[in-house]
Amino acid sequence: MSRIAERFANLRGQGRTALVTFVTAGHPEPSVTVPLMHAMVAAGADLIELGVPFSDPIADGPVIQRASERALAHHVSLHHVLDMVREFRERDDQTPVVLMGYLNPIEVIGYGTFAAEAREAGVDGALVVDVPPEESQDLVSALRAAEIDLVYLLAPTSTEERVRKIGAVASGFVYYVAVKGVTGAGNLDTGAVGERLGEIRRHIRLPVGVGFGIKDAATASRVAEVSDAVIVGSAIVGRMEELASTPERIPTLVSDFLSELRAGIDAAVKR
User: Fold this and answer.
1) How many percent of the chain have pLDDT more than 70?
2) Between 134 and 50, where is the model more confident?
3) Are 146 and 119 in contact (CB under 8 A)?
4) Which of 45, 60, 129, 164 is in the most buried spot, having the most CB atoms within 10 Å?
5) How far is CA 241 from CA 17, 198, 232, 246, in A?
6) Could you tell me if 28 and 240 are in contact, meaning their C-beta atoms sit under 8 angstroms apart?
7) Helices marked H in 134-246
8) Cis bond leading into 28, ω under 30°?
9) Which tens digits make up the pLDDT trace of 158-173?
10) Distance, CA of 230 to CA of 228 (rounded, Å)
């Protein structure tokens, strides 16, 4: 059983919903990342998504785009991100880590090399946003050989056929992008999200996490009612951006925010 599968199985046995946190590696400077990863785990994060900086992050919003720009200004590459995971693993061999990013940096070093180096570093999964399931066979093969999960995105507009295709190749969990939540908690229709997750679960037996627009404990609690994981990214990265000039304050501020989210998630009543 993979570290991701084991984590979700343990949480399911406890009747709890996972808190998945996203940060861009190397933002606002490389020295922040690993201490922040440990701080997030201590504050209640169950799984960490580590963003690989990329020069053309077309699927990301402005907050995460700016984070990538700052990381790239420090020359943070995929190799540096793998080194960060290695350092994290010196103290934590339990918390799953998923690399999230784009295909180009992986293609540069080659699928097989990436899979082998990621495995050696302690990476558990990869979410490559610009690889559709129809074109992912070679990447899937390389990652499966290294026992690394390949996580996919789903949206409210994903057709039943696409859900089935993703179900055939995804592993670990799937990430449902709740687009209606992007403008704020008040517009997040939890009922609609829950209904859509029910449709997805008819074809995919993996845990389903929900992200996009989760900004506070109230939103996190509502999403936790219907999902297997609450995924938070921009709300964390935005707080980090505000402290770019005082990076030593970032772990404490992010930990306080995550503690609030964790309390909201744990207070949710499953539907």
Assistant:
1) 96
2) 50
3) yes
4) 45
5) 27, 36, 15, 10
6) yes
7) 137-145, 160-169, 190-201, 217-224, 234-242
8) yes
9) 999 999 999 999 999 9
10) 7
Catalytic residues: 49, 60
How do 47-51 and 18-24 pair as beta strands?
A: parallel
Residues 64-107 have pLDDT tens digits of: 999 999 999 999 999 999 999 999 999 999 999 999 999 999 99
Residues 25 and 81 sit within 8 Å (Cβ to Cβ): yes
Q: In one letter, which amino acid is 61?
A: G
Neighbours of 38 (CB within 10 A): 18
pLDDT of residue 179: 66
pLDDT tens digits along 35-75? 999 999 999 999 999 999 999 888 888 999 999 999 999 99
pTM of the model: 0.94
Residue 69 neighbours by CB under 8 Å, 6+ apart: none
Closest to 48 in 3D by CA, of 2, 110, 100: 100
Please say if the pLDDT value at position 156 is more than 80: yes
State how far the Cα of 169 lies from the Cα of 147, in Å rounded to an integer: 13
Report the run of H or E that residue 154 belongs to, with start and end.
Answer: strand 149-154
Paired with 154 in beta bridges are 176
End-to-end CA distance of the chain: 27
- The confidence band for 187, taking pLDDT boundaries of 50, 70 and 90, is low
Please report, for the chain, the start and end positions of each structural domain, with discontinuous segments joined by +: 3-266
Block residue for tokens 């996009």: 212
132: left (phi over 0), alpha (psi -120 to 50) or beta: beta
| 178 three-state secondary structure | coil
